[in-house]
Amino acid sequence: MPGMPREDSIENIKQVITDLVSKMGIKADIEIREQQDTVVYNLRTNDTNMLIGKHGINLHALQYLARILARRKLQEELDFLIDVEDYKKKREFFLTELAQEIKRQVIDQKRAVVLKSMPAFERRVIHAVLSEAEQVETSSIGEDPNRMVVVFPRGQQPEVSPDSLSFLETEDYKVL
């Protein structure tokens, strides 16, 4: 299991991220903060769209590459996160609000809701927020990159196929 980076490792990881972003032709300042039991490297840059990508896909790839390079350089697996202009923090707040809204809707209408496909990080936020809710449950359906979260009244998991769903570009979820 990955551990929290030591002080010297924190600076080495920062250098790995700096080098990686630099090779992409992007200039960024990196702020380091501790968040729960991990270290967050928050990049400040004018190229946010390039680093984040649609639905955070580029940021996810950057995180993946940085972990591989850091593991290779430091000869140990360390737990750290990369964020860009607090994108993940803001997205987590939005997803928490969305989860609460969906929970109310499922309880009021007694019908399941399927959220549009989202990356694993975002699905985990929805599952975590609703894990303590007494009246609803969640599950994931489909395969990455099209995996979706289903929120449904407790004990009433619907039979849903991802292939049977289509979303408009403006929709974040569908009521079943």
TrEMBL record:
Domain of life: Bacteria
Domain R3H span(s) in chain numbering: 89-155
GO molecular function: RNA binding
Database matches in InterPro entries: Jag_KH, KH_dom-like_a/b, KhpB, R3H_dom, R3H_dom_sf, R3H_KhpB
Annotated PROSITE patterns: R3H
One Pfam family recorded for the sequence: KH_KhpA-B
PANTHER family: PROTEIN JAG (PTHR35800), RNA-BINDING PROTEIN KHPB (PTHR35800:SF1)
UniProt protein name: R3H domain-containing protein
Species of provenance: Candidatus Doudnabacteria bacterium RIFCSPHIGHO2_02_FULL_46_11
